[in-house]
From TrEMBL:
Keywords: Acyltransferase, Lipoprotein, Transferase. GO terms for molecular function: acyltransferase activity. InterPro entries: C-N_Hydrolase, C-N_Hydrolase_sf. Residues 2-237 form the CN hydrolase domain. Gene3D superfamilies: Carbon-nitrogen hydrolase (3.60.110.10). It comes from Methanohalophilus mahii (strain ATCC 35705 / DSM 5219 / SLP). Pfam families: CN_hydrolase. This is Nitrilase/cyanide hydratase and apolipoprotein N-acyltransferase. The keyword Transferase applies.
Length: 260
């Protein structure tokens, strides 16, 4: 059993300092509620601040991640989210860099492989799908638009993910898609799914929140509305193994018939 929290927060456009302070304050509160894994929305520290990316994007050693490393080390917790990364590239010089930090150690990163809309003009997509291995759990991290690609979640599960985590800035008016796709990814892969979306508004869009924590059967363990909040649930990781023995979906695949 693991206790997971999603920090559903508004993201103040381009205001890194304020966003990080608010995120860590909420993470601190989640810890007092017993959280072991704390999940932030996609690019929670800046939003998609295209007009100031040259100032706000980060290179190693990633100052924002450094602050989270310190927080994680102090509190012996796991933190998951993403930031805007600066790349050494003449065209599309940025990336959406997902990360997973455990007890003050960066256990792994993942670059979003499916940029959406305007992101395609700024972000170089990642080129690999891989889960992030922690001491006692393997995290399958995907970012926003990727919830629409069942291949991503399936590959993460086949490579050993125990918990699927989707971090997002999934906008209105497509909140109903988000609420359908999230449980579907859990059910079809027999894996618990943490869906952490932002809320509020940026200069061009509004966001429905609707963060959810789903078990491997597709049951909703925690659900939010549109307001800023912390949702939390205990996830029984053994349920997935029990389920797969009764309904062996992964074993019954016919991969020879699926490729084009």
């Amino acid at each position: 059993m693991v206790k997971v929290a999603c920090i559903q927060m508004d993201v103040e456009h381009c205001n890194k300092k304020t966003n990080i302070e608010r995120a860590l304050a909420r993470a601190d509160r989640a810890l007092t509620m017993g959280a072991e894994i704390i999940v932030f929305p996609e690019v929670f520290s800046t939003g998609f601040c295209y007009e100031q990316m040259d100032k706000l994007a980060e290179k190693p050693p990633y100052p924002t991640i450094g602050q989270l490393v310190n927080f994680s080390q102090k509190n012996n917790c796991i933190l998951i989210g993403s930031i805007v990364e600066e790349l050494d590239a003449e065209t599309k010089p940025y990336a959406n860099l997902g990360f997973c930090i455990e007890n003050g150690i960066i256990r792994g990163t993942y670059r979003k492989i499916h940029p959406f809309g305007e992101e395609k003009s700024h972000f170089t997509p990642g080129d690999s799908i891989h889960p992030i291995k922690l001491e006692n759990i393997c995290i399958g991290l995907e970012i926003c638009y990727e919830i629409r690609f069942p291949e991503v979640a399936r590959k993460l599960v086949l490579q050993g993910a125990d918990l699927l985590v989707t971090i997002a800035q999934f906008p209105d008016p497509r909140g109903n898609h988000w609420r359908i796709l999230g449980p579907a990814r859990a059910v079809e892969n027999q894996i618990p799914h943490v869906m952490c979306n932002r809320t509020g508004k940026d200069p061009t869009k509004s966001f429905p929140g609707s963060s959810m924590i789903i078990d491997a059967l597709g049951n909703t363990l925690a659900d939010s509305g549109r307001d800023e909040c912390i949702i939390m649930a205990d996830i029984d990781l053994s349920l997935a193994k029990e389920l797969s023995s009764k309904i062996p979906v992964l074993d019954d695949r016919r991969e020879d018939l699926y490729s084009n």
